[in-house]
Amino acid sequence: MKMEVSAKVKVAGFLWLEGLREACCLHRVLILCIRSKRLLVRTGQCFLLNGFIFLGSIFVLNSVVIPALWWILPDQCSQFVSHKLCDLGGTLKFYSFLRLSLIQLFYVLWFYPLYVFSIVLSTIWYNDIAKYGYAAMGRSKFTVEKGSSQNNSPTVQNANHVKGPSGLGGVMLGIGEQVYSILLLSVFFLEVYATGFIPYIGKLLNFLLLSWMYAYYCFEYKWNFNEVALDRRLDYFESYWPFFAGFGSPCVLAIFFFSPLVSYGIMAILFPLFVLTATGSESEKEISLEKHKWRAAGVERLPIFYVANKVSMWMLSLLTLEKGDQVQDRKAQ
After folding, report:
1. pTM of the model
2. Mean per-residue pLDDT, 169-183
């Protein structure tokens, strides 16, 4: 029994290290940027917005603006030029209120609008970065590698393998899949957030779930370009969960110990780099080719999205029932 557990831990650890190694292959970013000028420009714009402007603004606030406000509006009588001001009981309270109000005004008028603007623009840029990186790899939407029919890796499964419904039916199926995917990941995000409040093991669970979430987002772009069905993505992701846990770890580790705004700025810079490393990764294909080896070692599928799937299906069923009731009411009228 101990030998079996030891073998499972060993194989899971190997897959985790393989995922970690793949995430750290940042030299691929340089290679792809050299191949594609558009990719270089878009990546540079992402660094400029989220690094220089967003993180730079936080640095200016903490290093220049706040110290200047403390100097102009001190909180100790010894710092006053005239001690007569200190004799007035409300002066220190007024200075404290004014100082906090100016800092909050800085957040409301600059940081929060910049934060929203960065999220919207970065989301568009991430898709461009993944698309240009995918093109720089010499791949196209309908590229099929030899021997892919014997490989269950989603990176080589595309429209030529499984033909879905065409016409309006295919469009509606695609829209439905996208809606379900957004709902599933939104519920999973809430699940990740909730685990942070669990005593003792909450931080560890939060780190692990965040690693999976960011790893999924990184590989999702490539799977989209390969037109991989959502059920195949989830099946593959849950089958090789140690690999993806390792891939997402560096991404989470870089933001885990900072404030929310600083964490977002760092994440916004690093995320496109990990998207490109995922785009250029071939490791998951090799893992898929040795799937029988991992199964024999006891690495079974882990239902990571079980709770998110159940909640999402429940929410969709409520919408379906509500629409059905509305249709029946109209018919009765």
Report:
1. 0.80
2. 73
